[in-house]
Amino acid sequence: MRWCFSDDIDVSVASDREAALTALRRLEPQVVTLDLGLPPDPGGASEGFALLEDILRLAPMTKVIVVTGREDKENAVKAIGMGASDFYQKPLDADILTFVVNRAFRLAELERENRELAGQGNGTSIKGIVAASPEMLAICRTVEKVAPADVTTLITGETGTGKELLARALHDLSHRADKPFAAINCAAIPENLLESELFGFEKGSFTGATQSKKGKIESANGGTLFLDEIGDMPMALQAKLLRFLQERVVDRVGSVKPIPVDVRVVCATHRNVQDLISQGEFREDLYYRISEITLDVPALREREGDALVIAQSLLKTLGKQLDRPNLCFSEDAVQAINAYGWPGNVREMINKVKRAIIMADGKRITADDLVLPADGCEADYQLNLRQVREAAERKAIMQALTTSNFNMAQASRLLGVTRPTLYNLTDKYRIETSTATSGV
Ligand SMILES: Nc1ncnc2c1ncn2[C@@H]1O[C@H](COP(=O)(O)OP(=O)(O)OP(=O)(O)O)[C@@H](O)[C@H]1O
């Protein structure tokens, strides 16, 4: 290997899993070539696969090229399935190996540039969404891409994570934007009413039906139909919805004349649809129909940095609405916001911030005003000390900025650094130095 590559590639060699992981942590290589036959299982591939998994968990951006035996196509395919970027079959041929490795370096470089470019577009332009975390920004970018295509989309995520907001964004950013957006909550309407709410009814079709009425599906014609809490839809109606999705016609209750309707369908649920399917509560065929694209919205606690920027933005907008502008969070409030798990996500945060704005005695909102428990501690699985240091530095800067209401002079004093140093650091971590990127 050392002999094979030119001088401008630094080669480091490890002969077992432990040595490889030590080198990975220390050197953070862009490219790894991995022979699957490692001790104590040199004849098999178990140790190699275990190491592949370790590498991709610790440093997912690493390009791993798996080196397999001449006839070992099966393991090569398996490795690619697990996330290896390429494979190479023995015996070693210096030219071909150099070619494969150079290609992996180029790919790693392109991906790095791509991440940088994506990171520069700070925040999101989606109305109502405040986001700073890579996870949420990625979701927003997907929404921007998916919106113009007329695909049926399923949005999953815990309650209060912003599923309805994203459904609206799918509508607003589509060519249907000037047509209706009709939403219906399948869990909030009793089963016997849901059918007529969705599909409409003909005059006389049941007692009290004194005249015909369009259902939600028809009233969304030309626009978007948002079916919230689709996981709670009764089985009988699931069959009827499936027919609509397949044939794009609705049968009003009491009518035999199908009415063609052109809508884009977006569904959301906080429930685990796979579980519902295995418990026989959700039709698998309907699931495949509604999930042409699936968006999994992460919980607030899984989005690094989002809790603070959203809290800050809420403080601004709700503070104005409640006639208490110019409030800010105290340091213990900032820490508590970061440390809390937010089981009710953004909706819970809205309630807590609203309460705190009303309850705060002075200009500063404390953790007590927010009714948040004292700071917890977190144990994270990190690649190495540099990553731990950077994560801590980023967090401290965000806290100082939020506490000082994004006043750079004050934040730099809190951090004990000069203002130019703070600007360098906010550039380094791509932290916005004004408050959140879009309003709530
Ligand atoms: N990223 C965000 N930035 C600002 N506000 C947000 C964000 N996400 C959600 N919200 C706000 O939080 C509240 C809850 O959002 P939304 O109703 O979209 O959640 P949901 O996932 O559909 O909840 P549920 O599953 O309970 O229906 C709304 O008032 C919404 O405006």
UniProtKB/TrEMBL annotation:
Keyword Oxidoreductase: no
Residues modified as 4-aspartylphosphate: D35
Residue ranges occupied by any Response regulatory domain in the UniProt entry: 1-105
SMART domains: AAA
Residues annotated as signal peptide: none
Record Pfam families: AAA_lid_14 (PF25601), HTH_8 (PF02954), Response_reg (PF00072), Sigma54_activat (PF00158)
Annotated InterPro entries: AAA+_ATPase, AAA_lid_NorR, CheY-like_superfamily, Homeodomain-like_sf, HTH_Fis, P-loop_NTPase, PEP-CTERM_resp_reg, Sig_transdc_resp-reg_receiver
The UniProt record lists the keyword Transcription: yes
Residues of the Sigma-54 factor interaction domain: 129-358
Keyword set, alphabetical order: ATP-binding, Nucleotide-binding, Phosphoprotein, Transcription, Transcription regulation
NCBIfam families per record: PEP_resp_reg
Protein name from the UniProt record: PEP-CTERM-box response regulator transcription factor
Organism: Marinobacter alkaliphilus
